[in-house]
Amino acid sequence: MELLAPVGDLKSFYAAVYHGADAVYLGLQSFNARMKADNFTTDNISEIVKFAHIYNVKVYVTINILIKDSEVDEFLEMVRVCVRAKVDAFIIQDLGMARLLLEHFQNIVLHASTQMGIHNLSGAKFLEQFGFKRVVLARETKLEDIKLIKAETNLEIEYFAQGALCVAFSGNCYLSSLKNGNSGNRGKCLQLCRLPYQVYADEKLLTEGYYLSAKDLCLMKRLQELSAAGVDCLKLEGRLKRPSYVAQVTRSYRQMLDHFDTAKVEKEKAKIGELFSRGEFNEQAYLYHNFKIINPQNGNHRGKKIGRVVATTKFKNIYKITLQLKEAIGQNDAIRLMQGKSQFSIGVGNVNVLSNGNVEIFSTQNVPAGYDVYLLKSTKKESGLNDYARYLDVDFYFTAEVGQPAKLIANYGDIAVAVTGEKLLEKARTAGITVEQVSKQLSKLQETKFRLHHLECVLGDVFMAVSELNELRRRIIVAIEKAILEKYNLTLPTVMETKSIASPVVKAPKKNFYLIADVADLGNVSWHNFGIILAPTVYSPEHIEQLVAQLTAKGIDPKSLYLNLPIVATEAELDILDKILRQAKIGIVANNYAHLRWVREYNTIAGIGLNVYNDYTAWTLLQLGCENIIWSIEKNHLTNCGSALVSGYPALMTLCHCPVREVFETDCTHCRYGTNLIYQDEKHNRYRFRRVKIEHCYFELFSEEKYQKSTNTGKIYDLRSF
After folding, report:
1. 0.70 exceeded by pTM
2. Shared-domain flag, residues 338 and 350
3. Which of 412, 417, 545, 687 has its CA 20 to 30 A from that of 518?
4. What is the pLDDT of residues 576-601, one digit of tens each?
């Protein structure tokens, strides 16, 4: 399997390349989901790509956010620069932009971002037919669905193996956007899921903790299962993490991929955990149906426990803290001192080693005795990882004979290049050049990517200046780098700009809808000239048949009925939905690309889950057969067509784990869903849950604060209550 490493800055880039990545993914200064990272620029991307390609490392550029109509020209220009730099592929979320690139750049290679939410065969087939070469599966994808995708498509499959795990279903988290105006779909997520929450059960305070904070992912034990299932690429998360983390996680997975050894997994996990871990790892992700993903005890890096506080005494204007440690600490390290929910984070300055082996450090914080000591950062260990460099072995063959120009041949793998001196060599007047002299000069490759592995010399009795040897060495390195890149570029498809793209003209009808879960939600409203979108909490043929019968009994035309399809469904659950639709014979609201399997069979509206954010995406979905579109709830400036949610309680997250199970530490045989759970943050924002059940249960988190929006286009009134 290909090992794909995260690159958020230049140091992380070198760390990934040197420690064994087969490919790296990175963002430029805009249009990527990690805008807080340092990222790269259109000015340096060409050199970055050349460096990676010399090491036979691929470069994937992330353009994995939703794009505004006003940004399209800038977006297109950035891609154009990357194409000319010969990046290997683009990771993209926005369907309209994907269509734009496929039409504008012949042979461009697109990978579907995990933000597109592909997690079953139907979604994968749609993207394959659309023109994608690879799908980065949603973390929620089940193992059986991975196998189906591999068996039934020609797509490459990429799957997250390590790192931070989003608690919400990929691409459909709107919490940060609607609460703080910082959209994860625009690369600005504030990670409100990592905050502590008070948990109320039937309005009584039950507990508190990080109940929306998922454990970090570690699938090192599952590498053989993932390979057997058909995963082509293991993806490591971490574009916002330190270069030392990127180095260690790449190094550990490289070792396991090259020589898998179950006995060494725990050792490598521990190395990663020392650099970043929220505590216990999640070692199965969502691969199976029986899982728990939440870590309520900690929302950030916990570190490695290395000792305890023995005593704290006042020292001048600060405190002297005595520590008993089983592992040494040094200047510029970072530690966290914890006891229960109380904690202190300290940057280590001077360290005094006492005669009994304990150490003293100094801080402005008065930390009581008995606190546990956790090592957050070891400068010594991180320096070892960051200072490591990998060089490419090259063989030199040098000839210097009287009456001939000097000649230097370099062999690297199956590549051979040669350079010759600019003048004929003369017989030495005294001592001729020696092998030792040649070796000394040709070995000076410290500022290059190469190291001399083997040298052979054929020397006549000739004189040759040191400057001439140095010039040959410089020219041979230039020549071999050029040859490596030329060979690499032969493996890349030739990407060509084909035509200019006109702005699409979107002609979606302005329609008004009521969104309901049950017939009772309609109350006394007049439904004339309104469509009805059914969003039931149970998706079964019997339940939907009953709802449709009740609505038609009220005189509502079945042609105005649409079933809001769940964002998440395994392929087996899609078969249940197929049975429902064939029986109900009503329209659908598609909230995942998998739902477009039905676009030619049923009247189809592109729903909120598809994140329609620009005219290009709207136009693309209409061209695919959708009769109408619902604009993203994150989009503020709406085209005067289509429909938009204007009031109600939309899902801010879709969860594939059971929050009830996490809070009560129970299982499905003792289901306590009837308990009315409320999560409340430090600002007293309150959130509730709706359960959506097909074969398995999914949960929607929504705010008690009603969503309100004004628009000139078609209106959708969410009549569901809590």
Report:
1. yes
2. yes
3. 687
4. 999 999 999 999 999 999 999 999 99
